[in-house]
Specification:
Shape: globular
CATH topology of the largest domain: D-Maltodextrin-Binding Protein, domain 2
Largest sheet: 5 strands, mixed
Strand content: 15-25%
Order of helices and strands: HEHHEHEHEEEHEHEHEEHHHHH
Strand order of the largest sheet: 2-1-3-10-4
């Protein structure tokens, strides 16, 4: 995530760039809109790699990458047909399906979730149980936080809305906030503040970061889905191998970032095995494990967040990816 001060200007620049792309559409290609979960950044690098290197066009696709933001609901964009594909997480897909939105994840963007909480280096919080009695800045409605409260019995933990900035964190030595380990620690350390992070996936709550479509679109256009997945995963393999060209491109799309920041993120993606779980095996790009989907579904049931029970295997497909 990026500092809040640049959100408005960045949103305007992204819309301008998006409009320029749309004006150059090739009528001989299938038009596809892909909704991201935030403004252009390395966590989206594989998709921009596929676009920049022409992998989508080689598959006969004209893909418009639509920037997200704090107020964009990707699941809604896809379920209403505003976009054919979007980025999200496996828990959000399961929750949406339980509400009747009929979404299906077609591949994993990240094998594990970089979601975490960040504390100051000298904070008394060393594990999740230590959050008792503390206040945590969290995006309202975050399922992972509900899981933490339930698992660690954090009945006296207080929640305050996240601001998508580290300004409060830098000013308050007791401040605790949600982050991506691939992003906010860079800004904190750049400002001279030493931090520690606690990765949510270490608690056993471990959603995939995924990209998804609707079951209807998958059934009607499996060829297009296959092409989009194939080109996207090709892009991710290339991006992780050498992100330099795409990072320079991302810098133009998102001038609020810096090359140093993007280098930090790319290294964090590699060090955390976020793209290739427990290894650097490119053949595992996008892979799923049905057992993890079943476990996530049961965790959501236990949290009473599944509104209507259903078969969790309908929320994803392994038609285009392997097993991790």
């Amino acid at each position: 995530m990026i500092p809040q001060k640049s959100l408005f200007g960045l949103a305007v620049s992204c819309l301008v760039l998006l409009g320029c792309h749309s004006a150059k559409r090739d009528p001989g290609l299938t038009q596809v809109a892909f909704q991201t979960d935030w403004y252009p950044q390395p966590e989206h690098g594989g998709f921009y790699e596929a676009q920049l290197k022409g992998y989508y066009r080689q598959e006969g696709l004209d893909v418009t990458i639509v920037p997200g933001g704090p107020y964009v609901i990707a699941e809604q964009q896809v379920s209403t047909g505003a976009a054919q594909f979007a980025m999200g997480s496996s828990d959000r897909v399961l929750e949406a399906d339980s509400r009747g939105q009929s979404l299906v994840a077609v591949a994993a963007t990240l094998q594990s979730d970089p979601q975490a909480i960040m504390v100051h280096a000298d904070s008394p919080v060393h594990n999740f149980s230590d959050l008792k009695g503390h206040t945590v800045a969290v995006k309202p409605g975050s399922t992972w936080f509900e899981y933490l409260v339930a698992r660690y019995k954090l009945k006296n933990v207080r929640e305050t809305p996240a601001t998508y900035s580290i300004a409060n964190f830098l000013q308050d030595p007791n401040y605790i906030q949600q982050i991506f380990v691939t992003s906010e620690p860079f800004f904190a350390r750049k400002a001279g503040t030493q931090v520690r992070t606690l990765l949510i996936s270490d608690t056993g709550y471990a959603p995939y970061r995924v990209f998804f479509t609707t079951r209807e679109y998958l059934s009607q256009r499996p060829d297009i889905v296959a092409k989009f997945v194939r080109a996207s995963l090709h892009g991710w393999r290339d991006y992780i191998a050498d992100p330099r060209e795409v990072n320079a491109y991302l810098l133009k799309l998102n001038p609020a970032m810096s090359l140093e920041q993007m280098q930090f993120t790319c290294q964090a993606l590699k060090d955390g095995h976020f793209v290739y779980q427990d290894s650097n095996d490119p053949s595992k790009t996008g892979a799923f494990d049905p057992a993890r989907w079943s476990q996530m579904y049961q965790q959501l049931v236990d949290l009473k967040l599944i509104e209507h029970p259903f078969d969790p295997s309908t929320a994803y497909t392994m038609q285009f990816v392997g097993k991790n």
